[in-house]
Amino acid sequence: MTSLTSASLAQQLAQTTCHPVLPKEFQFGIGLIVDLSATSDIWGKVTAGHSFADEIKRQAQVIQAKVEIGRYAEERTIYQDTDNFSDSQARTMHIGIDLGVPTHTPVFAPLDGKIFGFADHQTQGDYGPTIILCHQLDGLVFHTLYGHLSRDSLADLFIGKSIQQGEQFARIGASNENGGWASHLHLQIIQDMGNHTDDYPGVIDPAQADYYLNNCPNPNLILKRTDLK
């Protein structure tokens, strides 16, 4: 096994055909790219009876979007009112990609892999049911994390279980089981898991961006949407 640099992994993934993580009509369909940064126009449309999630759904309906996309490396302030971030107010940079799709949408393995870890993180604002796969590309080892899954996605799993490219291994969870969020998939690439086994930060302090953006490169290397950087 060979240690990775962000550049070498990006080069490998750019040249690799990945199976869609979601059904093609979602992964490659019309997408609403959502801006949740502090200066976004979306906050001017939020009221006591109309949340930012409601506004995202409204905007998606206008353009008939099949998927709502939360951006990689975006700084957000939506986390600080949740229990999971109550003691980490500086964590505002999102280092995965969010894909807003209906509850129970199937999730497929982009590449051959094995179960590295899984858990049900039920603190409000956390991942909810989470699965991490370990992959190898020409001897290079890296991981993919899937957050906000359905609870039944964790059934019959064990560490080291083989998951074939294109195999459905999970489903998208509902709000009452996914950490309290609108239904979506949080997808993240992780090179070095460090001491983490069934979890990894998906939102980090921007002061640590150099390390984390290198260790967690853009998941669009797997998704391959042309409207994302």
Automatic annotation (TrEMBL):
<dbReference type="InterPro" id="IPR011055">
    <property type="entry name" value="Dup_hybrid_motif"/>
</dbReference>
<dbReference type="GO" id="GO:0004222">
    <property type="term" value="F:metalloendopeptidase activity"/>
</dbReference>
<dbReference type="InterPro" id="IPR016047">
    <property type="entry name" value="M23ase_b-sheet_dom"/>
</dbReference>
<feature type="domain" description="M23ase beta-sheet core">
    <location>
        <begin position="93"/>
        <end position="191"/>
    </location>
</feature>
<dbReference type="Pfam" id="PF01551">
    <property type="entry name" value="Peptidase_M23"/>
</dbReference>
<dbReference type="InterPro" id="IPR050570">
    <property type="entry name" value="Cell_wall_metabolism_enzyme"/>
</dbReference>
<protein>
    <submittedName>
        <fullName>Peptidoglycan DD-metalloendopeptidase family protein</fullName>
    </submittedName>
</protein>
